[in-house]
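In full, the data:

***
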Amino acid sequence: MPTIVHSRLTAVLHQIMEDRGMTSRREMGRAAGVSQGTIENIMHGRIPKATTLVTMERELGLRRSELLIAAGYVSEPTELRPKVQKVLSIIESLTPDKLEDALRYAVYLLQQQREEKARRH
């Protein structure tokens, strides 16, 4: 699976670069609101944090979740339930700091649910 995900994500980034006439990864990083190193890492198969991809989507003006889907973080939009689509819409509007806060809170909630489930069994 990592190879497939890597191929999808790098293909999307290569296409964006080509469509926008970008000739360097530095230029892509600037346009995407991330460092050249982040772009280099992605192009070499490293999957970035979801928050990084959301920032890139926003800065590049991409359709919602395009990079998250390519990286395998979420399903295709047609497969998402309405509540999940609403949450993604809200998440996309957050600043990077608020997005980090939301992510930490989501992890906290997940841990609480897992602990509760373990107590019941």
About this structure: The chain is about 70% helix and 0% strand. The two ends are 32 Å apart (CA to CA).
